[in-house]
Amino acid sequence: MSQVQTPAAPGSEILISRDAKPAEFPLGLRILCGILNSVNDLARGKDGRFNRRMMNWIEYKIPANSRPTRGVYTKDVVIDAHTGVQVRLFVPAEAEEEPLPVVFYFHGGGFATLSPGFVLYDIFCRRLARRRRVLVISVDYRRSPEHRFPIPYDDCVGAITWFGAGNGKPHLPARADFSRCFLMGDSAGANIVHHVGCRIAAAAGEETVRIVGHVLLQPFFGGEPRTPSELRLVGVPIVNMENSDWHWKAFLPVGANREHPAANVFGPNAPDISSLPLPPTLVVVGGHDPLQDWQLGYVQHLRKIQKDVELLFYGEGIHAFHIFYQIDASSKLISDLHSFMTRCSQR
């Protein structure tokens, strides 16, 4: 069951129920999660190195397909030959004339793993494109520890700029509407939404696309002190603190801790964003995600600085529940995005 929080007065408390049981996973998904977690543990070295070959072997990827599958065709486009950064386009195949809003999607994986072609992201973005009638541009940014902060942010800004300059026209349907763009991402990708969105807002007047909304799905934020949810939710699927700490250490500048503004976005070292013209923001939080206290704090801080922010809280949601397409909450989330995206598109 989800609870929708509409914008509230700054400083108001967020009242949520945490008594929901975690979503039930089919056996196949539980096995897949277990394998991914085990291989991720093996690939992460104590010295900060990462066995990319091992992780690539287990990350089952779906190739792009120009023939529509479940109403959506896909295409991979290299946008920077020097760095190798590319995007995957997810285009609804129905030949309707109405313009298609654009979603720039940034995948999760702790900045170090996964890609737009990973099977669960390919399925999610395909469902998003079909059900919300949007063009999805999923960015295959460079990953840590080979490419630390701020390179993933730079790559995602670069992708938006590349399309804004009209370079993507040969690959896009004519009805792609860059006057109605969303930044959307999950986990580390939702962290990217915040930082890239702030960069774009800071350059207001120079932007080449119009961002009408931010959607942060269970963002990967953090800090040095442990929060109550991090201490309480031990043994839940996907996220644990040892894993999380390693990914921060592999991503942040050498010698930095989790009080770096990339992680603690409203901490003492973070820049003041109160004057930035940010678009409306939707934050999705799961009741069985250890990172939820940082995510709820983010909502509170946006309200405190008078930003337009909504919260969707799914009591049964584990971290990244939205990509596990066989559970009810995943399908409900895509439905629940409708009202926010419609409101933003009409601005």
Give a brief description:
The protein is 33% helix and 20% strand. The chain has 347 residues and is of the alpha/beta class.
Structure description:
The protein is 33% helix and 20% strand. The chain is an alpha/beta fold and 347 residues long. A 9-stranded mixed sheet has the order 1-9-8-7-6-4-5-3-2, sandwiched between helices. The longest helix has 18 residues, at 328-345.
Number of strands: 9
What is the string of SSEs from the N terminus onward? Answer: EHHEEEHEHEHEHHEHEH
The residue ranges in which pLDDT falls below 50 over 5 or more consecutive positions are: 1-15
Helix amount:
25-40%
Shape, please?
globular
Approximately how much beta-strand content do the residues carry? 15-25%
Keywords:
347 residues, 9-stranded mixed beta sheet
Write the layout of secondary structure elements.
Blueprint: E1 2-5, H1 27-43, H2 52-58, E2 72-80, E3 85-92, E4 100-106, H3 119-132, E5 135-140, H4 151-164, E6 176-186, H5 188-202, E7 211-217, H6 228-232, H7 241-251, E8 281-288, H8 292-304, E9 309-318, H9 328-345
Parallel strand pairs: 4-5, 4-6, 6-7, 7-8, 8-9
Antiparallel strand pairs: 1-9, 2-3, 3-5
Helix pairs in contact: 1-2, 3-9, 4-5
